[in-house]
TrEMBL record:
Keywords: Disulfide bond. Gene3D superfamilies: Mannose-Binding Protein A, subunit A. The lineage of its organism: Eukaryota, Metazoa, Chordata, Craniata, Vertebrata. Residues 1-81, 89-192 form the C-type lectin domain. InterPro entries: C-type_lectin-like, C-type_lectin-like/link_sf, C-type_lectin_CS, CTDL_fold. Transmembrane segments: none annotated. PANTHER family: C-TYPE LECTIN DOMAIN FAMILY 20 MEMBER A-RELATED, C-TYPE LECTIN DOMAIN FAMILY 4 MEMBER K-LIKE-RELATED. This is C-type lectin domain-containing protein.
Length: 256
C-alpha cells in the first residue's frame, strides 16, 4: 500500500484512478494481512469447527482453536498482530469485523492470522489467556480478484467500501483507500510491470531454537532478505503446516 501511496504522490495526480482489482469471483477465503513470508493471503491451512455458511463473509476463532464464520456486522472482541512478527494483542471492545481491521491497521498492525498449526495454537493460547470465548481474526471471504492473476489478498478499502455499486476498483488519493465503481467511468489508471523468476532453495540450520516459532523463522527470513534486496524471499510451508523439519541422524556404518 505504501508503494502505491508513494507512486501517486510522486506523480502529482490527485484524481481518483483505476487499479487492477475487479469483482470477478468465485468467492474465496483469504487473510486480511495479505502477502506475508509464507503466503499470498489465500487460506490453505484450515481449522473450521464446521463448514462456513455460504452467507457469512467474515471469520473468527473460538477458545478451542476452531474457526467459525459469522456476518461481518457481528460484534466481537478481536486480536491484532504486528506486521512481520508474532506479536499478538487482544482488544476486548466488541466491534464489527471491518472496524476491527481498520483499528488494527491504524496502529501498524492487522487482524491476526493462523496460516499453520503452530500459528493457530499461538492464537488459541492468547484467546484462552484473555478468558474469551470467541474473537474476530483476519479471515474474510470475497470475490475480488487482481487483474495480474495474483492470489494476493491485499485489500485497503476506504470506510464504507465496497458498497457494491460496481465491479471495478479505484484508488482515492485523499482517502488513501480503495472504492468500488462502475467500470465504464473514464478515469486515469496505474500500470506496472513486474518480471518474476522463481527459484527454490533448500537451507539447513543447526540450532537449539524452535525454528518453526514465527518470531524465529521471521528473524531468519529478514536476514536472508537483507542479503537479497532485489528478490522477494518466502518460506515454503509443508503440508503439516511447518516450515522446518528435523532430519533424522543418519547411521554411519563402516564398510566391510
Amino acid at each position: 500500500m505504501q508503494r502505491l501511496v508513494n507512486m501517486v504522490s510522486a506523480s502529482g495526480v490527485t484524481a481518483e484512478m483505476w487499479i487492477g482489482l475487479t469483482r470477478t469471483g468465485p468467492p474465496a477465503w483469504l487473510w486480511s494481512v495479505g502477502e506475508t513470508q509464507i503466503s499470498d493471503g489465500v487460506v490453505e491451512y484450515t481449522n473450521w469447527g464446521s463448514l462456513p455458511s455460504s452467507t457469512d463473509n467474515c471469520g473468527g476463532m473460538r477458545d478451542d482453536g476452531k474457526w467459525f464464520s459469522a456476518p461481518c456486522t457481528t460484534t466481537l472482541p478481536y486480536v491484532c498482530q504486528d506486521i512481520g512478527s508474532s506479536g499478538l494483542y487482544v482488544v476486548f471492545q466488541g466491534t464489527s469485523w471491518l472496524y476491527a481491521q481498520q483499528n488494527c491497521r491504524m496502529n501498524n498492525k492487522d487482524l491476526a492470522s493462523a496460516r499453520s498449526q503452530v500459528e493457530n495454537l499461538a492464537l488459541q493460547q492468547i484467546i484462552n489467556s484473555a478468558a474469551l470465548s470467541s474473537v474476530w481474526i483476519g479471515l474474510f471471504r470475497d470475490d475480488w480478484k487482481w487483474s495480474d492473476q495474483s492470489d494476493s489478498s491485499f485489500r485497503y478499502w476506504a470506510s464504507g467500501q465496497p458498497n457494491y455499486d460496481g465491479l471495478c476498483t479505484l484508488y482515492n488519493p485523499s482517502l488513501k483507500g480503495f472504492m468500488d465503481r462502475g467500470c465504464t467511468y473514464s478515469l486515469p489508471f496505474i500500470c506496472y510491470e513486474e518480471t518474476k523468476h522463481t527459484r527454490t532453495v533448500k537451507v539447513e540450520f543447526k540450532s537449539s531454537l524452535n525454528l518453526n516459532d514465527f518470531s524465529v523463522s521471521d528473524a531468519i527470513l529478514q536476514q536472508i532478505q537483507s542479503k537479497y534486496q532485489n528478490a522477494k524471499v518466502r518460506w515454503r510451508v509443508q503440508p503439516d503446516g511447518k516450515i522446518f523439519h528435523k532430519e533424522e541422524e543418519k547411521e554411519i556404518k563402516d564398510a566391510c
